[in-house]
Amino acid sequence: MNVDLINHNRHKKIFWYSDNQLKLHEIKWFWLKLGGIILGLLVFCLVLVFGVNQFYYNFLHLGNSRLNELAQENRMLRENLRNLTSELVDLKSHLDKVAKQGDQLRLLVDLPQLDNETKVAGTGGAVNELLFSGISGQTNQLLQSISSTLQSLNSEVRVQAQSYSEIIRKYDSNKGLFAAMPALKPMDGFYSAKDFGKRMHPVLGIFKAHEGLDIINDVGTPVAAAANGIVQVAGQSGGGYGIVVVINHGYGYQTLYAHLSKVLVREGQRVKRGDLIAKSGKSGLVNGPHLHYEVRHHGVCRNPADFFFDDVSLQEYQRQLLAH
Fold this sequence. Notes:
This protein has helices at residues 30-108, 116-119, 137-180, 314-323, and strands at 3-8, 13-18, 23-26, 197-200, 207-210, 213-216, 222-224, 229-236, 243-250, 253-263, 270-271, 276-280, 290-297, 300-302. The protein is α+β, with helices and mostly antiparallel strands.
């Protein structure tokens, strides 16, 4: 169907002609409809222009605002990184103090100080730049500096942790060693440090090696263990020593107490330094009451006087133990 628009000027009406129906049809309210269409198009264009303007305004305004926020966040991040760097420097200073104190502790427990090469072993490794490949400028430099410092601190902390573990092990070992060291004079009485070694035997009248000290006192004077240990022998020796007590202290130390009148411990008994183990006498080959006292270290006889701690008396030692 072909439609032709015909303007009927006489009545100012608009018609359209239908070929199929062979007649004219009037378009009612044509101008009103045309005006409505034009007005609608105008409103649409205005809305479109306003929307586009609003979009660009929001995009630019909000984009600039977001950029400003990101710039502010970046400044704050750099400032926080600087503060973190400062804190790491303080931490390094504290770690240096810990290392210095560790050296002092090593000396106290009879360990050599750590040399500088050991302290910095494994520090200063290369920073993995790929971690910060997407970051440039000052932030990148700060992050690399912090990463390097953290690697160094981590290595130094591991070294100090190992050192302190070694100190603790040595300290525990020393406690056992010191407890086993025969540092207590086992009986009150007179002795001469020169009595150790070759001398004239008082009974046999010949020169003979004297492998201990003779501490002179009356029969029945209390005899104490010179250090912690386990009783190996308690009773008659079957020789010139008469009645004896032998204690194994560990760490290669052994002590012998001879010419006793009475034994107060049994074989296999564990004793502590200062515990009463016997009473002095004059059993065996002697010319008078005294305690023959020997110290052996790894089987070698040592002068017992070299182990006495400032010649502390048995009574003084026991009194201080009770006080604590």
